[in-house]
Amino acid sequence: MTPESQTAIAYLRQPQAIRDRCQQLFELCQAGQLEHFTCDLSQLARVANYVVETTQQLYPDFDVPFHSRWRHFDAGGTPRRQQLDTDLANFSRPAAARSRLDLAIVSVLLDAGAGPQWRYHDHAADQVLGRSEGLAIASLHAFRRGVFSSNPAQPYQVDAAGLEALTEPTLADVLQVSTANPLVGLPGRLTLLHQLGHALPSHPSRFGSDCPRPGNLLDYWQSTYGSTLDAGQLLTEVLTSFGDIWPGRVAIAHTNLGDVWARPALPDLSLGSQLVPFHKLSQRLPYSLVEPLQSAGLTVTHLNALTGLAEYRNGGLCVDLGLLLPKHDAVTRDAHLPSSPLVVEWRALTVVMLDLIGDRVRQQLNKSPEELPLIKILEGGTWAAGRRIAKHLRPDSGAPPITLQSDGTVF
Questions:
Q1: What is the pLDDT of residues 147-200, one digit of tens each?
Q2: Contact 380, 51 (CB under 8 A)
Q3: Looking only at Cα atoms, what is the longest distance across the chain?
Q4: For the packed helices 44-58 and 341-365, what is the interaxial angle rounded to 10 degrees?
Q5: What CA–CA distance (Å, rounded) separates 92 from 308?
Q6: What are the residues facing 256 on neighbouring strands?
Q7: Helix 93-109 vs helix 280-295: crossing angle, to nearest 10
Q8: The 3-state secondary structure of 158-183, one letter per residue
Q9: Which of 172, 217, 334, 367 is the least buried, fewest Cβ under 10 Å from its Cβ?
Q10: Which residues contact 43 (CB under 8 A, 6 or more apart)?
Q11: Are 165 and 106 in contact (CB under 8 A)?
């Protein structure tokens, strides 16, 4: 690998690269040079008001938790996390943290868009849930049953052999998929888990050699960073550790870059300068790993280094409330691939808008970035507001305003 390639890859694995490239597309938008969107910043106050109102409905005292996978496990008011805590009560503190890391990682990787038809019936709670909450609870139940473990005596783990042995019928059963209950991107999700299973033994220093598992990153990070880990560095670590698992997309020097997309409208100044990174699921991982790491005694600092998530709820909020304006009917009429210039524009502008919305929300609430980091604004917050406005405008489906052709590995 050449020094130029190393430099480009290292840069694209930093959260600052996401902000930099998205800002470049925003500046093109402001100059009227994007193909598919314009931006009306006069709507920022309206959007911020809607986010504050939504947050107040969900968290009247504005004591907002982090935006992470852990919120979804207790959907419907059922204390499933408490049940997991009981399961792990006799584990040592590090062992319990490794199990929580295993669960968070596999659950986030399964959390691409489920589509409007799929539902999960939690028989124990007699609740039916769709989308992210349904996928979360399905993965939690599967984890507690040992579906991702190769050792029946150690069900509360995700290991390489267990993932590689996973079949599509088993995953379909876990997710209650049928012809009457279709899930978008089931084969893609299975491939992602298989790729994770293949990748774990390839990095014994990170994942261990005797029983490679994601949760062993706890030991690697403790030995490398001690008790404090910067959030930006955590994202780089996640991208380095799991870079091998993503389906073949854009690569530099045979290194798969993951959720990174070409946008030729950007200036071709150096290797990778026309690439736009988003790392949606990969950023969802650091957000969802903060609490398991805290349970092991680690502190994650500089959470505002991470960006807002470029996904359809946050992006849908911006479109539905008129902050982002489609330039033509095909934007909302047709279905679009993640690689399409239209989706790349939409996601990039969403990242920039989330920073601007966050600033406005803090101004309204008289909060500092430390008091109300973006990870809480997303939870309170923009994600919930995006779902709320979608349900209001499209009550039959609650779908986002833009239709995506998902393979189960991006959104």
A1: 999 999 999 999 999 999 999 999 999 999 999 999 988 998 999 999 999 999
A2: yes
A3: 61
A4: 70
A5: 34
A6: 251
A7: 160
A8: CCHHHHHCCCHHHHHHHCCCECCECC
A9: 334
A10: 321, 322, 323
A11: no
pLDDT-derived band at 406, boundaries 50, 70, 90: confident
CA nearest to 389, candidates 50, 27, 19: 50
Using one digit for the tens of pLDDT, what is the confidence trace for 258-270? 899 999 889 999 9
In which band, very low, low, confident or very high, does the pLDDT at 407 lie, cut at 50, 70 and 90?
A: low
Q: What is the pLDDT of residue 265?
A: 87
Query: 228-230 and 299-301 as β-strands: parallel, antiparallel, unpaired?
Result: parallel
- C-alpha closest to that of 140 among 336, 295, 288: 288
Other beta carbons within 10 Å of 188: 15
Digit-coded pLDDT (tens) for 311-333: 999 999 999 999 999 999 999 99
Output the CA torsion sign for 113, 116, 64, 20.
Answer: positive
Q: Which amino acid is at 46?
A: R
- CA quadruple 326, 327, 330, 331: dihedral sign: negative
Task: Pick the range with the lowest mean pLDDT from 108-122, 188-202, 373-387.
Answer: 108-122
Q: What is the pTM of this model?
A: 0.87
Nearest of 160, 75, 81, 156 to residue 120 by alpha carbon:
75
